[in-house]
Amino acid sequence: MVRFITAALAFALTTFAMPSPLTPDPAGEKNIGNGAGQQFIGGACLSGADCASTCCATLNGAGICSGLGAQFQAGKTGCGFVSGDAAAAAPAASATAAAPAAEATGGSAAAVDPNAAGSQNVGKADGSQFITGQCLSDADCASACCSVANGQCASPAVATCGFVGTA
Questions:
Q1: Could you tell me if 167 and 122 are in contact, meaning their C-beta atoms sit under 8 angstroms apart?
Q2: Shortest CA distance to 31 belongs to which of 10, 13, 47, 14?
Q3: pLDDT: is 18 or 66 the higher one?
Q4: Please, which residues have CB within 8 angstroms of residue 151's CB and are 6 or more apart in sequence?
Q5: What is the rounded CA–CA span in Å between residue 22 and residue 144?
Q6: pLDDT over 70 for what percent of the chain?
Q7: Averaged pLDDT, 77-90
Q8: 3-state per-residue secondary structure call for the chain
Q9: Domain ranges within the chain, ordered by starting residue
């Protein structure tokens, strides 16, 4: 009986000695700071532009890519982490990476599209823009959330808000 308890205790201790999910996975080091949106969940990031999920959450003072629904789990304090090195590390934005790069630089990389639905509401700051409509700040959106991932009005439940752009 004593051997069984000792064996069970040894097994339990080795199970709890597994690596903690509370540190970024080093396997995606090539994706840190490049702003290409290719970093996987659990990988380190300098801003949301690095993450495929667009969410760079703060964990122990560093950035870790997180799922939008898990941004407050396991000690994370929410999306929006931006390192002081993010703007310097990100390459010039391409046409497909223009919106994510805007989070790192703090401004819009694209002009307002006058042909898009709701373009008359962009930049008014009166909360008249609908979800998925282009925005320059949270004040444009009826949802009070201008997504940092793409400069479109979104639900705060599914996006990191706070995009700031210029016309």
A1: yes
A2: 47
A3: 66
A4: 99, 102, 108, 110, 134, 135, 136, 163, 165
A5: 31
A6: 68
A7: 69
A8: CHHHHHHHHHHHHHHHCCCCCCCCEHHHHHHCCCCCCCECCCEECCCHHHECCCCEEEECCEEEECCHHHCCCCCCCCECCCCCCHHHHCCCCCCCCHHHHHHHHCCCCCCCCCCCCCHHHCCCCCCCECCCCECCCHHHECCCCEECCCCEECCCCCCCECCCCCC
A9: 22-94, 107-167
Q: Please give the Cα distance from 36 to 121 (Å, whole number).
A: 29
Q: What are phi and psi of 126, to 5 degrees?
A: -115, 10
How is residue 135 written in tokens?
A: 């925005």
